[in-house]
Amino acid sequence: MKILKTTLTPQYKLPAALFIVLYFISTGTLFSQQKKEMQVLLYNAQQVLYSNPEQSLKFAQHIAKNSKSSKEIIQSYLLISKSYLIEGKYDQAIEASENAKRMAAESNDDSLHVSSLSLLSEIMNFLNLTELSTKYNDEAKQIIKRNSKLHKEFKEIEISEIIKKDAKLSPEMDLTYAKITKGTLFTQIAKRYLERSDYDMAFLYFSKSMENLEKKSNMDYWEMLNFINYSDYFFNNKQYETAVEVLYRAAEKQKKISNPFYEKEINEKLMKSFIALKDSEKSQEYYQKLNIAEVNTESQLSLANEWVVTHYENKKNNIVHLKERKQKNIIYISLTFLLIIVVVVVVFQRSYNLKIKNKKDFIHFFEIMDQSNHQEQKNKSLKPISVSLETEKNILTGLDKFEKSNKFLNDNMSLPLLASQLNTNTKYLSKILSDHKQKNFNFYVNELRINYIINKLKTDPQYLNFKVSYLAEECGFASHNSFTFAFKKHIGMSPISFIDFIKEDKKNNAHRL
């Protein structure tokens, strides 16, 4: 067989070489241009973060989707998190920070890893999830401790020490040590002086913060936080009209940010100021605005808490699963055949004992279920409530209809949504649930959902063959894990164990016949 060879004649060699050179130059230029474009977008996103978080978010999302650099992607996730945090969307802020943390750990970028951990710690602290906040803060400290290059970059500053020593602070430190959930450094110091009733020093630092921010552009968010806290200074000094003026300025800034939590805070402070001014019309106006803002904030907090519970429950389950696998591997390698037999015997015995215990729990559960209607009637007379009798009656009637309507199967059902459907507010509804049902909202809805699915399992045989994930979706739970957790909490056993016992009970009854 002849091998055909292709050769370029001299007149084609030079153009071909030029083409190859130009190809690599154009490819390199394109890559360089793309990198420059991403750097410009990062800069622009940072510039508008505190004046137009929605625009900053769009820039950052584009970078996260299109950048080839892991560092740029991590930085974009941090900007996404901060944008959502400024807008009060805490569940999405946590998720973006978690993505940044994961990627920073994978790429061994200690600086960005600490930044993401610090941001997560701040968010959790704002949501009063102290344990998680401390956990993230401790992780960040461990990384800083082992990497001396980070000591200066992440130097901590204590407000109490500044006040104690009357430290001299440069204007640059105001934003360097700013906290998104607390304000600039000078705002934080002013708040601390205000808490100590040192009004002269509080006024000094509020003024310093305002002066610094006015010299810069795109500082609307920081100015809003300063105005909100500055109004407390005037209110405490009974300068109510000035407090209102400052709060109006805060409200103007808030419109650009659209954060329901600060909208609520501003409306509440305006309502109190107008009450102090004895302006009933204005105080009533801001009372109504406050109620609307409260619904939005409770909805956001509910989403954030649900995300945290679901995420960390899954994470915990994965860790447990990995540990179990590791332990099994060690057993298979190290134990003899005789030891395996002993283990099987022990496991069988424990399983049998657990089965007996669960059966007792199972019987006890149905005894409680039979008595539940009598107990609910008894509970209705336990505590007096602070709302009117007519309102109380309307809410209880609405709850009875709600329980019979199966609306609780809606996985979007929340305290604000139910309150809206019952034509009341969340405070009254929570009070009635506490006094008459002896439950908070989540426990109340979960119990209705669990009782619903238990009834289905007992009365409809096909439900015994469905997967747990389908049962969870059927009765309104957002995830398999949250359903299993709620099921075990309410009756003391997992859905699978419960189904096994029903099957066994039906089988035994069939044999008797």
UniProtKB/TrEMBL annotation:
<keyword id="KW-0472">Membrane</keyword>
<keyword id="KW-0812">Transmembrane</keyword>
<feature type="domain" description="HTH araC/xylS-type">
    <location>
        <begin position="409"/>
        <end position="501"/>
    </location>
</feature>
<dbReference type="GO" id="GO:0043565">
    <property type="term" value="F:sequence-specific DNA binding"/>
</dbReference>
<feature type="transmembrane region" description="Helical">
    <location>
        <begin position="12"/>
        <end position="31"/>
    </location>
</feature>
<keyword id="KW-0805">Transcription regulation</keyword>
<dbReference type="GO" id="GO:0003700">
    <property type="term" value="F:DNA-binding transcription factor activity"/>
</dbReference>
<keyword id="KW-1133">Transmembrane helix</keyword>
<dbReference type="InterPro" id="IPR009057">
    <property type="entry name" value="Homeodomain-like_sf"/>
</dbReference>
<feature type="transmembrane region" description="Helical">
    <location>
        <begin position="330"/>
        <end position="348"/>
    </location>
</feature>
<keyword id="KW-0804">Transcription</keyword>
<protein>
    <submittedName>
        <fullName>Helix-turn-helix domain-containing protein</fullName>
    </submittedName>
</protein>
<dbReference type="InterPro" id="IPR011990">
    <property type="entry name" value="TPR-like_helical_dom_sf"/>
</dbReference>
<dbReference type="Pfam" id="PF12833">
    <property type="entry name" value="HTH_18"/>
</dbReference>
<dbReference type="InterPro" id="IPR018060">
    <property type="entry name" value="HTH_AraC"/>
</dbReference>
